[in-house]
Please model this.
Amino acid sequence: MLLNIKNLHVEIDGKEIISGLNLGINKGEIHAIMGPNGTGKSTLAYAIAGREGYEVTKGEIIYKGENILNWEPDKRANEGIFLGFQYPVEIPGVSMTNFMRTAINAQREYREQGSISGKDFLARMEEKKKLVEIHTKLTSRSVNEGFSGGEKKKNEIFQMAMLEPTMAVLDETDSGLDIDALKIVANGVNLIKNEENAFLIITHYQRLLDYIVPDFVHVLYDGKIVKSGGKKLAEQLEEQGYEWIKEEFERVS
Amino acid sequence: MNAEDQILDKITSSDYKYGFTTNIETETAPIGLSEDTVKFISAKKEEPQWMLDWRLKAYRHWLTMKEPRWAHVKYPKIDYQDIYYYAAPKRKEGPKSLDEVDPELLDTFNKLGISLDEQKKLAGVAVDAVVDSVSVKTTFKKTLEKHGIIFSSMSDAIKHHPDLVKKYLGTVVPYTDNFFATLNSAVFSDGSFVYIPKGVRCPIELSTYFRINAAKTGQFERTLIVAEDDSYVSYLEGCTAPMRDENQLHAAVVEIVALDNAQVKYSTVQNWYPGDKEGKGGIYNFVTKRGACRGVNSKISWTQVETGSAVTWKYPSCMLIGDNSVGEFYSVAVTNNHQQADTGTKMVHVGKNTKSTIISKGISAGYSNNSYRGLVRVTKRADNARNFSQCDSLLLGDKCGAHTFPYIDTDNKSAIVEHEATTSKISDDQLFYLNQRGIDTEDAIGLIVNGYAKEVIKQLPMEFAVEAQKLLQITLEGSVG
Ligand SMILES: Nc1ncnc2c1ncn2[C@@H]1O[C@H](COP(=O)(O)OP(=O)(O)O)[C@@H](O)[C@H]1O
Ligand SMILES: [Mg+2]
Model:
């Protein structure tokens, strides 16, 4: 198993947000996580990426067979964990090109591969830009600065393509996208996907799942996965909303 | 043993042989400052009477002055009678090899990517006789001679070009100018003299590194640059490697004169020892730098990257006297731990259609304090003067301070003076975003800080720029997390 989350509890400022979550992901699989706002989807994503302030109080995150809870965020990234942010941050003054080159070289250094040549780097940029249909004018700007909401999301997919992660977590990459942008994002994921990597796609709507077909769909509610199924579950959620999940959950507990 | 090691070995062993038996310690002036000290210095340098007279006038004036306290910096009272004002460049008992040099210093050198040869030089390992560097210097000197350019130590210039020195010394920064400049005028140790003849474009960047006898410039450095009509020169001061010095007080003076259509570009990387993490030790750097654009269409451009010193007090300025003259000031000042910097510029518009640009980027971390202090003055006859100022502050952490003191003083209604200022912080969100892409926190800060300072860094000559970028990052090491 590539990623195995066992009985995970996460607190923010002493308040428990994730309470006993279990999730296993194999190579070559696409998992979708759905759930109402404020149930802890982003919290889960941050916990996997190792963000400070998201304190794991119980449980384990096993990745490639190792418990990664003590790993710094940059180590996790260099080991192949990628997080597509729900709200990508702007970094004024830092050009996309310099940013990507620094990131790729950090990864290569970690893997003892030596720096990428300027020529190879530019070739890789060109190739990946085409993949996500991202404009050259965007990569010549500062990171996310002055990007529209949709451009920021495409930029996340572009970075993912550049870094070729093993375990990609995409946090509501589909939110706020028009249908064309949504197709581009989905297409990007489908092209990057292979037998050696896996995706965890967090989404609020099942819309994206028309273009990226998940192997499993999980419903997150109140910090736990309360229901898992196949693509059908996503459709059911789209038709019936989350109310029945809440009712079912409250009845049980 | 390779050739370089052999030479090194030879030098170091001969240094041992002669250096220890000859007593050369007597070259130091008695402690404290008096007319005798000034006379002693002048005599040691075999200066002409006029030079001594000038020094003495400065000294007598200094006695009537009070140390300025208006800068936003705090430091203990300096006892001016407890300082040695002259120590001859003694053949000092430097480290014999890099093995004897502070490993922390070497670590920094490595991070800066400084070559081994260079490292030895900077750490004070005796390699002055290394064949290579001598031949480089000689070639360098020949090129300059061909163009009639004078580039020498101030002491040599006083000896060999007294008329030029007499004509220009103290005309931009008079000996009465301010407490520290006046002190410097009385006791200056040495420095550089540059003269670019009419119509000459200096083909190489002039750097103190290449100046013969530049090894020990001392704590009271005095530099004078004169650019005749239609000439151009780019001058580099300092170096990115950390500079240690047992003298705590540094009070340098730099004067620049630009005549008709002349352009002078002056770049500084200042990295004097800033003191330890608790703020102990470190250099007090009180500098007066001023350029006079005397000719029409002349231009003086200051670029500075300030990362060192415990206390910095420094305002490279431009007097825009000639019509259409241009003054520029590009500055990055970084303070970390307990460092304090009060730096900025003065742009004084006197001629018509004069233009000035001020780009100041302050970066504060730790417990440090970083102030921008600037004055834009437009005098009555300076019709159509233009100034644009951009003063940005970047804070790392919440224990440091950033302050901006922009003064604007205009006596001419046609002037257009624009001032913009921003204060920002490196956010945890930004750092985490970069971490998540595999970039560790120190590199992430380096990336953000260099992005922030880009406008200034790009003004530096290429090789300097690369080193300055690394330097910014190293200075801020350990400032977050
Ligand atoms: N930085 C934070 N500080 C305090 N509470 C937070 C923080 N981030 C999220 N929360 C809380 O955690 C819960 C889950 O948030 P989140 O993981 O963002 O949900 P989702 O992504 O599913 O919308 C919410 O109640 C939210 O208010
Ligand atoms: Mg969310």
User: Anything to note?
Assistant: Residues 100-128 of chain B form one domain. The pocket of adenosine-5'-diphosphate (ligand 1) is lined by residues A 12-13, 17, 35, 37-43 (CB under 6 Å).
